[in-house]
Amino acid sequence: MEAPVEADARRESRAIAAAWACFAVGIALGLIALAGPPRPIAGEGSVALPAAGIAALVAATAFAVSSAVHRRGETTPMPRWQAVIARVSTIAITIAFAAVAYLAVLTAGEILALGLQGLQAPALGGALLTGAASAAAGWLAFQAGVELRTTDLATLLFAFLTIGTVFAMITAADPRWWERHFSDLGTGWAFNLTLIVAGLLVATIGAYIGRDLHRRLGDAALRRIALVVALFALTGAALAGVGVFPVHRGQLLHDIAAFGTLGLFGITMVVVTIVMPGPPRALLLTTVGAGVALVVAVLLWRPLEVYSATALEAIAVGILFVWLTTLVRTLAALVPQESRPSGSPSPLRAAPAT
């Protein structure tokens, strides 16, 4: 059996090799995509657009390859339903890594364009930038494929929300959108894509939380765990619905999805706290505090009108981030890292007695 230190060194060597491979692929594809006259860093006909697409493709491939190499056979002893959830979660995370890489490169391009106004990058220079972006995205995705924890997914979710929102702000047609609400950013594609992929990530985080709860509680708690996973999936679907139905195209459906997301997350917080073994004091206090804070935040918006809907949305996201971070860190401290195949033929009933 390989020693832990040797195994870690081997994995790190693979990740570095993967980063160099991604760099080479990024340069090669960049030279093809950027052939021709020099291009601006950002905007139409720029370096950033093809570079973002290439980095997204490289990141998705790196995560898929790493998962196949390092988690081969993980689902073999699992019943069909558990294996399906694991595979669907892997596909969802692959899509998420591609989206994160795509928007991160576009955002970096917009920032560089502000600081390097008028710069025109030749094909070779653009290809080198594409290679660097591909190497960074590929390295991070490959590392995630080695051992992806629920805490990593929560970090990915909020990093992606931040990157997508910043890009939408920078490219917003109306610079005074903040006087109304974040939904005004939905007039552009970036913010809507961010919400849709974030919804997919929320549902996937729910599946991973279900996995962690099962490792801790076993098949006896399958029905309660299934309820938690279903609530996260519904919350993710509602959040994606906010992006699918932008406010300028269908305000009623947009508002239903937005307030549905908030309400479902509130219900999820309560249910998860009940299902958690204990529940741990830190999670219990955070859930109560988050619930009270959300109610107060809504009341300060309506009817007291202390701040705008933009401020309410930012505060709500901050509160939910604190609660979700507390939850996944608590699970990380309580849950064993070893995979636990279920003995039940269905997630809705306990395993047969042996």
Automatic annotation (TrEMBL):
Alphabetical keyword list: Membrane, Transmembrane, Transmembrane helix
Organism: Agrococcus jenensis
Highest taxon listed in the record's lineage: Bacteria
The name this protein goes by in its record: Putative membrane protein
Pfam families for the chain: DUF998
Signal peptide: none
Membrane spanning stretches: 15-35, 47-69, 81-103, 123-142, 154-173, 189-209, 221-244, 256-275, 282-302, 314-335
InterPro entries: DUF998 (IPR009339)
